[in-house]
Each structure stands twice: as C-alpha cells, then as structure tokens.
Amino acid sequence: MRQLVLGDNGLSEVPEQIGRLKKLRMLDLGHNQLTRVPEALGDLDGLSDSFYLHDNRLSSLPRSLGRLTKLRYLNISKNGFAVFPDVVTGLASLIELRVEDNQIASIPDSVGNLSHLRELHLRNNQLTSLPKSIGKLGELRQMDLRGNPLISLPASIGKLPRLEKLDLRWVEDLAFPEWISDLESRGCVVYC
Question: At residue 1, does pLDDT exceed 90?
Fold first, then answer.
C-alpha cells in the first residue's frame, strides 16, 4: 500500500500498528477528532509525498515524527497548537509546510533548518514577529502571514533570493519596513 486516506471519518485514535505500513508514501488523517497520534508514525520511513493532519484537535506531535526525513509536504493546520512543534524543523526534505489556523505565538529559530522549503503557510496564528533565521530559507517562494498580529518582520526576509509572494493581508499593526519595496522591485508580489 502506497497511499492511505482515513480523512473525514470521525477517528479519535489511530492504532500503533499503523507503523507497520512501511511502504506508505502518502497518509491522510485530516478532518478527524484526533487529540494525539501514535509514536509509531515515526516508523513510516517511506512516507515521502504528503502527510495530512489538518482539522483535528492536536496540540502536540510525537518526537518520533522527526524520523520522517523524506517527507516533502506536511499540513497541521486547524488544530490546537499553541506552540510550534519543534519536531517539524527536523524534517529536512519539507518543500511545503502548512500550519494555518492555530494559536502559535512564536516560531523557533530552528525553522531555518528547513533549507528545501518553498512554501510556508502561517495564516491566522498569534505571531507578533518571526525569527531572523527565516532568512536561511533560501528556496522559499511563498510565505503566507495573513491574519497574524505582527508588529515587526526581520530584515532577513528581504534578502530571500527566490521569494515570489509575501502575503501580509489582514495584518493591521505592522509598520512596513523599507525593504518591502526592494522585494517588490525584484519581482516579489507583496499583498498588504
């Protein structure tokens, strides 16, 4: 089995035996009632395409997920995260990360480890700032920060060489830095 879709089933738990599905490349556990996921998910070392955990009731992720080093897409949006799960920053192959509609107030410096990341979606959280290390995301093309109470942004964002889209709509208290116009002159579309 390469793909397993268990989304939209009202699941409240996932059995540890799921870790035996070593050939899975895509796993969808979205739109359920999960408050936790098993440590055994870290045994899915073939999981490379996508992992959907959005629209559940999760507030943390097991450390074992850090072993999913081939994973390219992760969606943990619409959960109950108040703290950004550090384990995510160890997923070195991530190309797209969606962490929208949570209650996250800060992003760890270790986010800079996601050197392959092309899309970062952080819409509708409680972010007031971002770490300088976001400037290490040299492959980043899109960053969605809509609906956060941002009051500052690090200048390192202005130096991201491949950034094509920066979405700052519904960010009301941000004093727009001068480097925004430099981004736009390089072809980056900035929505504000």
Answer: no
